[in-house]
Amino acid sequence: MDRKNQTAIKEFILFGFSEAPALQLVLFTVFFFIYFITVMGNTLIVLAYTFASNLHTPMYFFLANFSFLEICYISATVPKMLSNFLSESKTISFLGCVMQMYCFLLLGGTECIMLAVMAYDRYNAICHPLLYGIIMKKSICIWLIAVSWISGAVNSLIHTVLTFMLSFCGANKINHFFCDIPPVMQLACTATRINEIVLLVACGCVIVSSFILTIISYTHIISTILNIKSTSGRNKAFSTCSSHLIVVTMFYGSAIFMYFRPKSSYSMDQDRVISALYAFIAPVLNPFIYSLRNSDMKTAVKKIVCQIFVSQRY
Asked: How many other C-beta atoms are found inside a 10 Å radius of the C-beta of residue 254?
């Protein structure tokens, strides 16, 4: 490997969604709104869990951790993208690209596993209600969160190191809106076969396995719901599960499509749209789907908002 050619790259140019100057302000406004809603919604959920003692249960513990993860996840890409909308250079340093890829993969991998953990929690709550307190005790909940973060960190480190060990030979224009594996790998002028194999294996271990575990959990949940005699109770449970499954399928499906395929099938114009589903759309929907439709959470959030307005007024 020619290390000299690799270190010749000092910065990368991110194409973003469009190079048309007239669209930059429009895109900035749209993504700033998405970012603001995502951060504010998830922050309110974290605050609600922190200050509402009645929410100190395993389900809300996972939701609060998931909300914190979502804030970090969308912050790994959007702030830099927003600054590029208002800049003519649209560059990111080599080290900045490395850090952005590591953080995005760390948070994305952790989210994959945490979604499976949350589905497992709901499975125990609905299918084994009498044993729920024993199965999902605090130490187990903390251990599951720790495993999610550690697994995401290891997975991210492997991919980031392998990607930036490649030689780029002067090509530095990334046809994407952030430093993701497929668009960066397209710039490599050395063989990427090992990277592709590792990407497929890791995708199977992290994304596909988490998706399968999530689907298995919801299959058991739906089977239990079918035995509920109350029509209203059954409809409410189905409504909750269906909304969860929509977001889960969108997140996992788009991630599997993006990473679980050979390099020869990459199409960055199409992949930008697919990436937006798991990078922006899923995070902005998650607070509303998972938390803010819950009556206890809505009550706690309303109290937090009222307290904020009262404190500002006086």
From this structure: 20
> Alpha-carbon distance 23 to 14, whole Å?
16
How is the chain classified by DSSP, letter by letter?
A: --HHHHHT--EEEE--S---HHHHHHHHHHHHHHHHHHHHHHHHHHHHHHH-GGG-SHHHHHHHHHHHHHHHHHHTTHHHHHHHHT-SS-EEEHHHHHHHHHHHHHHHHHHHHHHHHHHHHHHHHHH-TTTHHHHT-HHHHHHHHHHHHHHHHHHHHHHHHHHHTS--TT--EESSSS--HHHHHTT-SS--HHHHHHHHHHIIIIIIHHHHHHHHHHHHHHHHHTT---HHHHHHHHHHHHHHHHHHHHHHHHHHHHHSS-GGG--HHHHHHHHHIIIIIHHHHHIIIIITTSHHHHHHHHHHHHHHHHHHH-
For CA atoms 249, 181, 76, 120, give the dihedral sign: positive
For Cα atoms 32, 65, 153, give the angle at the middle one, nearest 5 degrees: 85
- The pTM score is 0.87
Residue with tokens 């937090």: 304
At residue 72's C-alpha, the angle toward residues 67 and 74, to 5°, is: 95
pLDDT single digits (tens) 168-226: 887 788 888 899 998 898 888 888 889 888 988 888 889 889 999 999 998 898 888 88
Q: Which domains does the chain have, with CATH numbers?
A: 3-313 (1.20.1070.10)
Find, among 113, 16, 78, 24, the residue nearest to 280 by Cα.
78
